[in-house]
Amino acid sequence: SSENKESWGSRIGLILAMAGNAVGLGNFLRFPVQALQNGGGAFIIPYLVCFLLMGIPLLWAEWAMGRFGGKHGHHSTPFILDAMDKRRFWKYMGVFGIFTNVAVAAYYCYLESWTMSYVYHSVAGTFAPMSSEQVAAFFDSYVDVKTSTTGLPYEPIIFFVLCILLNTWILSKGLSGGVEKASKIGMPLLLIFGVFLAYKGVTLQAGEHGAQFSGLVGLNFLWTPQFDSLANPQVWLAAAGQIFFTLSVGMGTIQCYASYVRPKDDIALNAMSAGWMNEFVEVVLGSAILIPIAVGYLGIDKVIEMTKSGGLGLGFRTMPYLFQQWGAIVGAMAGVAFFGLLFFAGITSSLAMGTPWMGFLQDEFGWKRERAAWSFGLIVLVLGLPTVIFFQEGVFDEYDYWAGTVSLVVFALAESILFAWVFGMKKGWHEITQGADIEVPTVYRFIIKYITPALLLLVFLGAMFAPASGNWSEAIGLLFSGKGWALSDGAIFAKLFNQDIYRQIEVATDSATKD
Ligand code: PHE
Ligand code: NA
After folding, report:
1. Residue 158 to residue 156: CA distance in whole angstroms
2. What is the pTM of this model?
3. CB of 21 closer than 6 A to ligand 1?
4. Which of 12, 91, 209, 282 is most buried, taking the most CB atoms under 10 A from its CB?
């Protein structure tokens, strides 16, 4: 049915590409901030449980679905899901697996473009003479396109466009000629930079180079488990959300990459290699850089305080100044390593986000790869510009919420039901284990069938109806005593029907009619 003859060049290339897909800005920017916002050691246990009970099962299911779809000549989720069950519903559900990627790519590429700019400024020595306030102010001014004073006019837009062009160009070279090559270069460099910075973070000494605390203070905060958090649904939601985002599950990218695996080739071990590599990078490197260094200089309270207002900027607002404390040369090296690492992590992920869209157009409309790649670049530019221009108004965060969080849960819930209950575990298990180079633990047959969908449903309902107090048992008590349900502003339900943005528009029109 399809002219789409892409394929992976080698097994190591496939694993690096899949690991590159998973390892992203989520590992180095989102994970530390989630951990800080959710109580450090209170976060880590739910996080690991979610990895074992939702992350791993979804990895296997998505790889299996992808390879299965590929056998039938399909490389995007509408048609992969359709190959698993003919009812229309699944095909439409599969559209999530294309559009979520495009929408996430729109704001993700913007974030990625900051890292390009910051590599440039680290090399150019922009940060060298700056005080800590100036470095923070530099970022605030950078993202304020209208008044951007960072030297180049419209600098954020220039780097955003450059970043999209680079992504598009690599994508137009195809899977083995573009994506795989980028991963083979990017992933090793990322690991080298990461190990260097983690070493600097962990060995940071109180009193040396102006640090107040040793790097271990931040690490201890993160790694001292607090078991009482297990009863806090809010923390569970955050942990589940992070597991989804970091593993790239519920997105459609894994299915797409896996659809180019040959029918008899292993997926069970490949899925684990890429998944565990992501976890290594996240819990080892991701926790040994930003938190130890930021906490070492600023203290835990200050850093937590800083994550309250837009966490993703934390690294940009603090690190360039802190690196300077290590001296001009080591400081510049650390800056290049840190933002370079972020750049490689980012680009190997945003490339992945382009492939479902391209696969769809190549398979179903017979588009050439180059044309499909450029159309992706164009749509990312169009969808992304609002996040650039209206960054201060919170458009970026809205994208992250709807595309980067809610959609993932909805899609993962649907596909896990399709896989385990409609396609069925008999066929599903066969797909996972066929050609497997490892013995897949049979308990996962049970987990994939019952535990994963049930947990996903809980996460979904929890996110949908989160109570204002954040206290579920109290809220349920109040409900049964007839006092109703006070929704949190952050609940999906509240956001859907009572959005701030509507309120703002109302206020604006109200005052207009009064004049
Ligand atoms: N997993 C990537 C990260 O941690 C993000 C991503 C999500 C990449 C979805 C591809 C698809 O940053
Ligand atoms: Na990740």
Report:
1. 6
2. 0.94
3. yes
4. 282
